[in-house]
Amino acid sequence: MLDIDVIEDPAAAAAALEPVRSRLLAELSAPASAATLAGRLGIARQKINYHLRALEAHGLVRVAETRRWGGLTERLLVASAASYVVSPGALGPVAADPERTADRLSASYLIALGARVVREVSDLLRRSREADKRLASLAIDTEIRFRSPAERAAFSNELTRAVTALVGRYHDESAPGGRPHRLVIVAHPTPNETSRKEPSCQ
Questions:
Q1: How far apart (Å, rounded) are the C-alpha atoms in residues 190 and 202?
Q2: What distance, in Å, lies between the first and last C-alpha atoms of the chain?
């Protein structure tokens, strides 16, 4: 089972987002049979089997084990991953694209950048898995509490200067065998109960 899988196919995304099937994927973090799932969810086994077949057709679940009970064969199914993300690419031409957002300081642009990260990294990860290689990547996640909007602006300016200096030091457009890497740095207010109800405009 993968830690995380990115769903690229629109039909697979629709299957995973259907409420009963989404619940089945959560239940199938460990192998289980249709009869077991029917008991847990209080749904007829025939309906469970219908939903499982749809998930299996899209590669979201697979057979983990088969058991023989008399003349019957019981299949134990397991989800293909512990969690899932739907790629923006599943939306086709209406998927978010930072190139179509003019305001580089807007929240819309930040979201579009996030969508591009999911789309690009998921494709790279798929290819690295196929080649049985590890994908080199870096992620830094931290939280900072600013005393004032002025200090937030000062931090942004200092960070911009630091990143610009590092890029200037290490970037080599003509390096033989070099490979471009995308660097994305974002900052946004940390969600809490208050900000969910009333977005901060500062």
A1: 13
A2: 43
In this structure, the strands spanning 81-86 and 61-69 are: unpaired
Alpha carbons 36 and 66: distance in angstroms, whole number: 14
CATH entry, 2-84, from 1.10.10.10, 2.40.50.100, 3.40.50.720, 3.40.50.10490: 1.10.10.10
For 37, other C-beta atoms within 10 Å of its C-beta total 20
- Residue 60 phi, psi dihedral angles, 5° rounding: -85, -20
pLDDT digits 0-9 by tens, 86-126: 999 899 889 889 989 888 889 999 999 999 999 999 999 98
Output the six-digit token pair for 71. Answer: 């003349």
- Strands 72-79 and 61-69 turn out to be antiparallel
- The amino acid occupying position 85 is V
Beta bridge partners of 6: 85
